[in-house]
Amino acid sequence: MEKQIGTTYLRQKLTDVIQEIKEEKATYVVETFGRPQVAIVDLDQYQNFLRYQQERAEFFDWLNETAAINAEHNKDLTEAEILAIIEQARQEVWEEQQSKQ
Question: 2-41 maps to which CATH number?
């Protein structure tokens, strides 16, 4: 559950806000002059976010490496051959989807 809180009120109620974040997994968006500035989240949520960022970075590293390998492997293909491969892949996906229906 996301709540908005002003910086002045946060200073006054910091202990209560921290307790609510820990116990109820609340998320606070801290505002200054009505504009969102930062979010305060539970430590577990933050650690999950860091793990997600790491996994995402690793996935894109793998994807870029795979793309580079494929680019090297496919460098001699003509445009017609590439289009034929794409069409074949589309046809295979379509047939697979049809068989599931």
Answer: 3.40.1620
